[in-house]
Amino acid sequence: MISDTLYHAACRNRDVSEEIIREYEAEGPELMPVATPKSKPQQPREVTAADLIAHGVRDAVALIGYRGYYRDTLGEPGRNDRGIYDDALMVYSPEVYATFNANTDPSRYATGIASLATGVWRYKIGIHGLSKPARLQYRALVQAGPVTVIRDKQGPDTGMFGINIHRGGVSTTSSLGCQTIHPDQWTAFLALVEAEMKRHALKSVPYLLIER
User: Fold this and answer.
1) What are phi and psi of 190, to 5 degrees?
2) Closest to 23 (Cα-Cα) out of 10, 41, 39
3) pLDDT per residue as tens digits for the range 51-89
4) Whole-model pTM?
5) Torsion region of 38: left, alpha or beta (phi above 0 gives left; psi -120 to 50 gives alpha)
6) Which of 14, 96, 165, 189 has the greatest number of C-beta atoms within 10 Å?
């Protein structure tokens, strides 16, 4: 069994410790789940459509993330918290509109840790966790081009950093800068994105991140 001390050490360095974290969460003591809204985001389709158009996104299929969607109702009021699912991510196409509870921030504060900058970035289907053992890798949305991140205490940085859109955890949002979907909603999210990309014969989709 993984000890509490080893688990928390792994959380501080989860890029090399994912296996330890998953084993603890599967077999260790029950942990408090990360704060999550009681329901999925209720934003109307027409509001999301207007935001996409305002930012020049007119692709057949688009993703849009709202950082701080639950800013005043989850966590500390008026603050964009880290380590909780207080953000939202929507999937939009002519045929589909769906909303998901998400996290758009790193799980903690640390010098150099990345936060994806607001803007429009391109994503494609790929494999998350390529640096990990094969059994810990899985299909997700990965960068289809460079992104800009803001690093704590260091500032902007642009490149291919593996800032993916992937499954979050129950007791952690599982992010070193990635965008993460609540684990209970991950399977439905990925299946929907893949289906819409296939329907419209797309190799990549835009992801618009804006701040509330």
Assistant:
1) -65, -40
2) 10
3) 999 999 999 999 999 999 999 889 888 888 999 999 999
4) 0.85
5) alpha
6) 165
